Amino acid sequence: MLFTILLTLLTVSAPLSGLCRAGTLLKPASFTPQWFDQAQFAGYYVAREKGFYQKHGIALTLIRKTPGDAPYDLLKKHRTDFTLMPLVVAIQQRALGVRLVSIAQIFQTSGLMLIGRASAGLRTPADISGKKVGGSAMFFQMQFPAFSRRFHLQVRPVIIGNSVNLFLREGIDLIAGMEYNQYHTIINSGYDPEELTVFRFRDYGMGYPGDGIYTLEETWENDPALCIGFVRAALEGWRYAMTHPDEAVDIVMDHIRTTAHLPADMAHQKWMLKTVKDLFPASRTEWGKLSEAEYLRAADALKQGGIIEQIPGFRDFYKNGAGNAEE
């Protein structure tokens, strides 16, 4: 999967110039979210704003990007130390020989859904056959095949970007999107929820874990303490964001407007933060952890779909950077 990239390096470690409050030298590290600046990444922005990276000994540089090199390409090229991607993408890349490792699984399930107009007679997955379905190239390569096989679907795929405009103009019958993002954008564009039929992939046992934190195997081997510190700071940021949602959204909005210089809709960011909360485990002691069963479920789906030939070993793939998530 290819993207067009613009990278803007923004040093976000604060005015302590590489020194933490105790006078100890901070370790430099860089982090790249995999998409536009938004509340999907609230925990990382909050961790920056509240000084949690410094608390864990890190002088963090945030690498912003617009669509361009995929996150795993940034790792391969040593252009970032840490990044995010869905589990299925990471497994595919590991199977292809990219020596990345998971150090924390942040979203334990997926917000992925197919969104259609109820007026088109969409009631069950079988009704999708014959319809025009819009989605990204990654969606049709990585996520849709298992759903299609389960319900014996034949659809007319339409490759689209992040915009929902083609759906709003009725150029396609259904659109693939995230509940925390495109679904709310469609509702904000004038649709009532009752006018839409949604097929949440997790309702059909295909909610494979979403955003996880990844680094290169060599980074983990050379400095596991740095990796663990990054994960703990990020989880601390997420805990704070979930217990202080209004402040967290303010931090996200400030970041979008003053750092990313992008337009922002506060109502949309509030919806996003509220909705991604459902993607975390109920027990905070499980935050950041990836179970072998979930890993094998996702990897097996990729193998059955012919996307990978061999399943990478779980212990080679996953390093538990979260430890005790409540620490």
UniProtKB/TrEMBL annotation:
InterPro entries per UniProt: NMT1/THI5, SsuA/THI5
Residue intervals of the SsuA/THI5-like domain: 39-248
Keywords (A to Z) from UniProt: Iron, Metal-binding, Pyridoxal phosphate, Signal, Thiamine biosynthesis, Transferase
Record protein name field: Thiamine pyrimidine synthase
Organism classification: Bacteria, Pseudomonadati, Thermodesulfobacteriota, Desulfobacteria, Desulfobacterales
Metal-binding as UniProt keyword: yes
One GO process term, biological-process aspect: thiamine biosynthetic process
Domain of life of the organism encoding this protein: Bacteria
Stored Pfam families: NMT1 (PF09084)
Keyword Cell cycle applies: no
Gene3D superfamilies, per the entry: Periplasmic binding protein-like II
Catalytic activity, as annotated: N(6)-(pyridoxal phosphate)-L-lysyl-[4-amino-5-hydroxymethyl-2-methylpyrimidine phosphate synthase] + L-histidyl-[4-amino-5-hydroxymethyl-2-methylpyrimidine phosphate synthase] + 2 Fe(3+) + 4 H2O = L-lysyl-[4-amino-5-hydroxymethyl-2-methylpyrimidine phosphate synthase] + (2S)-2-amino-5-hydroxy-4-oxopentanoyl-[4-amino-5-hydroxymethyl-2-methylpyrimidine phosphate synthase] + 4-amino-2-methyl-5-(phosphooxymethyl)pyrimidine + 3-oxopropanoate + 2 Fe(2+) + 2 H(+)
Signal peptide: 1-22
Subunit structure, interactors included: Homodimer.
Pathway(s) it belongs to: Cofactor biosynthesis; thiamine diphosphate biosynthesis
Molecular function as annotated in GO: metal ion binding; transferase activity
Family from the record: Belongs to the NMT1/THI5 family.
